[in-house]
Amino acid sequence: MKDQALDSLWLARAMYDLDAVTFGDFTLGGSTINSPVFINPRAIIGNPTALAVAARLMYQEVTLAQSLRRTKAQPYEVVAGVPVGGLLLATAYSLESGVPLIYSRPQPEGTGARGVEGRYQPGARALLVDDIIAGGRSITETARFLAEHDVVVHDAVVLVDREVGARQRLKQIGVNLISIIKLDVMMNLYQANGLISEEQYDHYQDYVRATRAALAAADDAPTAEAGAANGSYDPEDGDEE
């Protein structure tokens, strides 16, 4: 566990060095609150070691979740990448774990019809893999699409978690979320190592408080209003794609 924690911090620093972390004023997905930080985990493909570490950490965390007395992850026969960034990590995960890869094609592309690429048995269980998550829309849509093609999703693993409501939303549709690096941990690391200014760090903290307050308000709304809020307030989902 100690080695995994150190690898996670190393990977967070590697993402910074690969310019995967950008500060500014960003409108992400359906959020009404602009984010001061943009994360692009796909940048790790520029460092094969970082990509391999990411895949290993994800595989180790899923395996650990399966081994607990009170199992927190189900067995799976295939790995499915969430388009687009998740497919890169899912490929690396497949190579690390030896588990076959599939991916969804929601729209026809070239000579490929709408459907699921790859070989699987009807009723197969898939582990979803994505690079970053905020509100959870991308994983929700992919899980539903796979269900239309007789693939079952119980668990999803993501590299970076913004921690703005995805875990609760996915739980409502029966999907367990496993995340490797929390955005809060990344920002704390960067601040502690002098990689970002106090002003940038404080701006990020203000954003977190505002976003989580908006989520809490949506959760406290009456049932009818909450349904509308859950449909419209989906922080940064896209999820930074």
Short recap of the structure:
By secondary structure, this protein is of the alpha/beta class. The chain is 46% helix and 21% strand. It is globular.
Average pLDDT for all residues? 87
* CATH top level label: Alpha Beta
Q: What fraction strand?
A: 15-25%
Largest sheet: 6 strands, mixed
Tell me the helix content: 40-55%
Structural domains: how many: 1
**How many whole angstroms does the radius of gyration measure?**
18 Å
Number of distinct beta strands: 8
Which fold does the CATH topology refer to? Rossmann fold
List SSEs in N-to-C order.
HEEHEHEEEHEHEHHH
Unreliably modeled segments = 223-238
Shape: globular
Number of helices: 8
Strand adjacency order, main sheet = 5-4-3-6-7-8
Our measurement of the CA-to-CA distance between the termini, rounded to an integer number of angstroms, reads: 31 Å
CATH architecture: 3-Layer(aba) Sandwich
Structural class: alpha/beta
List descriptors.
241 residues, alpha/beta, Rossmann fold, 6-stranded mixed sheet
Overview of the structural elements:
It is a single chain. This protein has about 240 residues and is of the alpha/beta class. The chain has helices at about 1-15, 50-65, 85-95, 135-150, 165-170, 185-190, 200-220, 225-230; strands at about 20-25, 35-40, 80, 100-105, 115, 125-135, 150-160, 175-180. Strand 7, helix 5 (about 165-170) and strand 8 (about 175-180) form a beta-alpha-beta unit. Helix 1 crosses helix 6 (about 185-190). Mean pLDDT is about 85; it is low at about 225-240.
